[in-house]
Write a structure and sequence with these properties.
The structure holds two protein chains of two kinds. Chain A is an alpha/beta fold. Chain A is 35% helix and 18% strand. Chain A has helices at 6-11, 13-16, 22-31, 41-53, 86-97, 115-120, 132-145, 172-175, 191-210; strands at 33-37, 57-61, 102-106, 124-127, 149-155, 158-164, 219-224, 229-234. The chains are: A alpha/beta, B alpha+beta. At the A-B interface, α4, β5, β7 and β8 of A face α1 of B.
């Protein structure tokens, strides 16, 4: 692994004091590549925290241009950049924070054509997408390629987060086998809730990369910010899961 | 017997309440397992909560149901005991 430069040591000094992280953990962050799928209300904050923490390379996948209705939550977007590419604006904002960061801006959402190449080029995925079709596609591809996926989701004032270790812990399809008919593309979003989930997702990614702490494998954390109720539910693999279960032919 | 039912996300929105207590005169209650309790709640309330919890009259497999923070299957009957906390977590996917 590459050594840290003096400037990096200065920048990350305070977080290298975290027990178990240290300079070795910082080098692991520097060497890591993370795919963040969509940099909306959740993904913007996940990307920002990972950039701040010194992750070496981020791949951002998100189609489309900035709209007024993005700006209550998509904190890497700016009013001045209205109408321009979301990922280009996000890339610029991340570089303002961390000029050492390598960003690959992919102006596409994850789809069947690009998912294999996107996942293959990273160490782990932070999934922050609004559609179950994309989420399940990423889940299946991460399982196929043996890449961890941090699954971040929110709705209204609640958040859900889990970490999927392929072959070792319950995958998304163990609990959601197909897109639920009740999920709608447009839903209530408060930026602070989306951002909180994004920060938690970044923390899971940092733990996966550095090995500190304990990730949410086989655990689904649910938080309701309306009254700050929090539950961490032990979840189980399904033996008949179409992705990771016996029926899939998975090992 | 008293059991607390907690609703998260869209379930809280549809139920109009974060949590509530259900009581039964029997302890433990042979006819009040997790699955029958949630079906009963869905059918009694109807409307959006029923749409969220039931598919063709059966509990949706996409729900995460938990008793005392441990997931239980929507398809198998799980006996309830006094003081249990049942959590209902529908799937959500924002990102937005």
């Amino acid at each position: 692994m590459m050594d840290l430069t003096p400037e990096e040591r200065d920048t990350y000094e305070w977080q290298m004091w975290v027990p178990g992280l240290g300079e070795e953990g910082q080098k692991k962050l520097k060497a890591a590549t993370v795919l963040i799928t969509r940099v909306g209300g959740v993904g913007s904050l996940a990307a920002y925290e990972l950039a701040a923490a010194g992750v070496g390379r981020l791949i951002l996948a998100h189609a489309g241009n900035i709209k007024p209705s993005d700006l209550n939550r998509q904190l890497l977007m700016t009013h001045d950049a209205m109408g321009t590419s979301r990922v280009e604006c996000a890339s610029q904002r991340l570089h303002e924070l961390n000029p050492r960061l390598e960003v690959v801006a992919v102006p596409e959402n994850v789809n069947a054509s690009n998912v294999a190449s996107l996942v293959s080029s990273v160490d782990l995925v932070v999934c922050c997408v609004p559609l179950f079709e994309e989420r399940l596609l990423l889940n299946a591809e991460c399982f196929r390629q043996g890449k961890p996926m941090v699954d971040c989701a929110m709705y209204e004032l609640t958040g859900q987060i889990t970490t999927i270790l392929p072959g070792r812990s319950a995958c998304l399809a163990c609990r959601v086998s197909s897109p639920p008919a009740t999920w709608k593309r447009e839903f209530p979003v408060l930026g602070a809730v989306a951002g909180m989930v994004g920060c938690m997702g970044a923390m899971e990614a940092i733990k996966l990369i550095t090995g500190i702490g304990e990730v949410l494998a086989d655990r689904l954390l649910t938080i309701d910010t309306r009254d700050m109720r929090l539950r961490t539910v032990q979840v189980s693999k399904r033996i008949d899961c179409g992705v990771c279960g016996r029926a899939s032919g998975a090992p | 017997m008293r059991v607390t039912v907690e609703y998260f996300g869209p379930a809280r929105e549809a139920a109009g309440i974060g949590s509530e207590t259900h009581s039964s005169p029997h302890t433990p209650c042979a006819d009040m397992n997790v699955q029958s309790l949630i079906k009963h709640i869905a059918l009694e309330r109807g409307g959006r909560l029923a749409t969220l919890l039931l598919i063709d009259g059966e509990l949706s497999r996409s729900l995460v149901l938990a008793v005392n923070d441990r997931q239980v299957s929507a398809e198998e009957q799980t006996e309830l005991r006094d003081g249990d906390v049942v959590t209902i977590i529908p799937p959500v996917s924002g990102g937005a």
